[in-house]
Every structure is written in structure tokens, then in C-alpha cells.
Write a structure and sequence with these properties.
Structural class: alpha+beta
Radius of gyration: 32 Å
CATH class: Mainly Beta
Helix content: 10-25%
CATH superfamily: Autotransporter beta-domain
Distance between the termini: 127 Å
Strand order of the largest sheet: 1-2-3-4-5-6-8-11-13-16-17-18
CATH topology: Lipocalin
Number of strands: 18
Oligomer: single chain
Number of domains: 1
Largest sheet: 12 strands, antiparallel, barrel
Number of helices: 5
């Protein structure tokens, strides 16, 4: 090869090598810049979980790299100062807010059932105390009842279960007939609106509207009685919650429907101790409430939640006592009642499964800590009757357990036609 040609070739080869090494250096610098600009999610998140529900969510987050808006949300968790703050953030991302929805429906079913059974107690008392000329068949045996009630309830927080405080207002109508002596057969229709506030720091809010319909029956022979009630409950839920910590905030909304069924049976004796009537009793109650699946609207924290349910089977033991006081043409009947209630199922609440609306993370789940199995129920009322045809009742009832307190006041008016 000519000397000039060799020299030119050497210059070209050297230039090529410099260009190649420069390109590699530029590529490495660009890669490093991207890594700094988009930090990977810290982790794993599992060590920060403090409940089984948070652990399930952490496993889902650790199983796939962050993407889109979720990357910014996770980066804000990584920036939190300590493990406690990160665990709280994980808890807010779980579906724990929804854990008490079926319980609110059951609370409404319980209120309706107790109101009807209190009404049946008064119907029996009026029938026993009625003069002999009061008809028991045909004309004059139809009774109607209209009642309204207010209720406040508080549920303490537990593992994967939020604190909740609720107020409710209810209206109920019942009509029954006595086809034969001492037998009552009727039907009831009612509505109940609930407004619940959960986890005060986050300020989520649930509104639930319950509609109920069902039959009831009662029979006594002067010494023993038996009552039976049943109902179907349709619930409409709306929920608003805010997820937030330093560096992240998201407002979320959801709506869902639910079905429920309730059945109760109670049997007891009718005893007298002088002027006081005493009724010891035992009962069995079944409650079923399910919530359909729902999809939240919002940002990166929005969840899609599958349907879930609560099933209860309770046994009750109790007693009530009443007496009559005549005041002119009216008879006043004060009544007190106390009962112990035991949940027979060890796992009444089903698992709740969810996933983020955005992204492709796997499903995560939680099983809320169950409420206490034992509860004490008390009630007190005064009924004023006139000529065995009309009765006005004012009453209070309370439910007390280790993790919940429920207080209710009712006013009812009943009349025989």
C-alpha cells in the first residue's frame, strides 16, 4: 500500500475508535441520568406491614415494578420518615374502609326486628288485659302500627377494621290480623337511613339507605308464647374517602348495592309475681348481608373491590318484666328487658379482595378482625293504652360489647280497627 494511503487509513481508524468510545460514554451517562430522574421503588414493602391486610397489599406491590401514577404514589411512601408512617400509608391503600358495610346493614335489620318484637310484646299484654267483651275474630281484629326511631352506634377499630360512628333514622309500618284467638299474623315495611364516619383522621364517610319488608307471627296460650319474624333488606351504599400523607393525596368515591336476609325466633314463658308480669325467653337469630362489587373513581389509589358478605348466627337468653298502672282512662305499662347474645359462628365475615383500578398488580385481600362474639342488650319503655284500642310507646334500647356501643330511641303508635 502507498505510504500516503496507509497514513490516511490510520487517521480514519483512530477517528472511528474515538467516536465509538464517545457514543458508549454518552449512552452510559444517559442511563445514569434516567436512573437518577426516575428512582425505583424502595423496598420491599413487606417489612413495613403491621396487619395481614397490609402484608397482602405489600406482597402485591413487591411483585411488579411501579408504573404511571402509581410510581409517584409509591415514591411518596418511600420518602416517609419512618416505618410507622409507611405502615399507615399501606393501611390507607387497603380496602379496610369497606369492612363494616355489611355490619351497617345488619344493624338496620336488628333495629327492625327488635321494634317488631317489642310491638308483639305489647300486643300480647293488651290482649291479656283486655275486657272479656273485646272481639277476637272478624270486625275489630286488625291492628296497625307506625313507628319512628333514632340510633347512634360506635364500633372500635381493630386489625384491618376502621373505627366507625354512625347515626340513623328509621320509619316503620306494620299491619296484622288475628285469624284465631291468640294468634297474630302480619307484615311490616320500613326504611332506614345511616350516615357513618370512619377513621376520623382520614374523614371517609358512608351513607346507606336500607329498605325492608317481611312477615311476622306470634302465638300464646296464656302461659307460653312463641314469636317468629323474617325480612328481606335491600341496601344502597355511597362512600367517599380521602387517602393522604406527606407528598400524596387522593379523593375517592364509590357506590354499591347489597342484599340481606334476617330471621328470628323467640320462645318464652308468661309468669306472674303479684302485679308484675315476667317473661323469661330464649331465641335464635340468623343474619345475612352481602355487598356487591364496586369500583372507585379517583386517582392512583382507586380500588376495584369484589363482592363480600357477613353471616351471623346468634343465640339469646333474657327476660323482661312489666306492670300496669291505671291513670284515669289510660293504662301505663312500664317494661324493662335484658338479654345476653352470643355469636355462634367463629368466622362470620368473609375475606375482602381488591386490586388497583390502574395497572396490572395482582389481587390483594384482607379479612377484618371479627367483632366481639358476646353482647349485652337492655331496653326500657313506657306504653300508654286507652280502652285496649290505641297504644303509644316510648322506648330506649342499647347494645353493649367490648368493641361496640349502640343506642336507640323509638316512638310508636298502634291502633286496633
Amino acid at each position: 500500500m502507498h505510504a500516503k494511503s496507509k497514513k490516511g487509513y490510520s487517521i480514519l481508524l483512530s477517528l472511528h475508535r474515538h467516536i465509538h468510545h464517545g457514543a458508549r460514554a454518552a449512552l452510559a451517562a444517559a442511563t445514569l441520568l434516567c436512573a437518577v430522574a426516575q428512582p425505583a421503588a424502595a423496598a420491599p414493602y413487606g417489612p413495613y406491614a403491621s396487619t395481614p391486610g397490609e402484608a397482602s397489599l405489600a406482597d402485591a406491590l413487591d411483585s411488579a415494578p411501579p408504573s404511571g401514577d402509581r410510581a409517584a404514589m409509591l415514591a411518596s411512601i418511600d420518602a416517609l420518615p419512618d416505618a410507622t408512617a409507611r405502615a399507615d400509608a399501606l393501611g390507607q391503600l387497603t380496602p379496610r374502609t369497606y369492612a363494616l358495610l355489611p355490619r351497617l346493614a345488619i344493624q338496620s335489620m336488628d333495629a327492625a326486628d327488635r321494634e317488631i318484637r317489642h310491638y308483639l310484646v305489647e300486643r300480647r299484654s293488651i290482649a291479656i288485659d283486655a275486657p272479656a267483651d273485646v272481639p277476637v275474630r272478624g270486625e275489630g281484629t286488625i291492628h296497625m302500627m307506625l313507628s319512628g326511631g333514632l340510633k347512634q352506634a360506635r364500633y372500635d377499630a381493630g386489625f384491618d377494621r376502621p373505627e366507625a360512628r354512625s347515626d340513623s333514622r328509621s320509619l316503620r309500618f306494620a299491619i296484622d290480623v288475628s285469624p284465631v284467638k291468640n294468634l297474630i299474623v302480619g307484615a311490616t315495611l320500613g326504611i332506614d337511613g345511616i350516615d357513618a364516619r370512619l377513621d376520623p383522621a382520614q374523614r371517609p364517610r358512608i351513607t346507606a339507605f336500607n329498605s325492608q319488608i317481611g312477615p311476622y307471627a306470634s302465638y300464646h296460650n296464656g302461659r307460653f308464647y312463641i314469636d317468629a319474624t323474617a325480612s328481606y333488606n335491600f341496601a344502597e351504599y355511597k362512600l367517599r374517602r380521602q387517602v393522604g400523607w406527606d407528598g400524596f393525596s387522593d379523593r375517592l368515591t364509590a357506590a354499591a348495592d347489597g342484599d340481606g336476609w334476617a330471621a328470628s325466633g323467640e320462645a318464652g314463658a308468661m309468669l306472674r309475681a303479684g302485679a308484675v308480669r315476667v317473661q323469661p325467653f330464649a331465641g335464635l337469630q340468623y343474619r345475612h348481608a352481602d355487598v356487591e362489587g364496586m369500583r372507585e373513581g379517583g386517582g392512583a389509589a382507586a380500588l376495584e373491590v369484589a363482592g363480600y358478605r357477613t353471616r351471623l348466627m346468634r343465640a339469646t337468653l333474657g327476660a323482661r318484666a312489666s306492670t300496669n298502672v291505671d291513670v284515669g282512662s289510660w293504662t301505663l305499662r312500664p317494661t324493662v328487658e335484658a338479654q345476653w347474645q352470643r355469636e355462634l359462628r367463629s368466622r362470620p365475615d368473609s375475606r375482602i379482595e381488591a386490586r388497583f383500578v390502574a395497572g396490572d398488580l395482582p389481587i390483594f385481600s384482607l379479612r377484618p378482625e371479627r367483632l366481639d362474639r358476646d353482647a349485652g342488650l337492655v331496653s326500657a319503655s313506657v306504653t300508654a293504652t286507652r280502652s285496649s284500642r290505641m297504644a303509644v310507646r316510648v322506648g330506649y334500647s342499647g347494645e353493649f360489647s367490648g368493641d361496640r356501643r349502640v343506642h336507640a330511641a323509638t316512638l310508636s303508635l298502634s291502633r286496633r280497627f
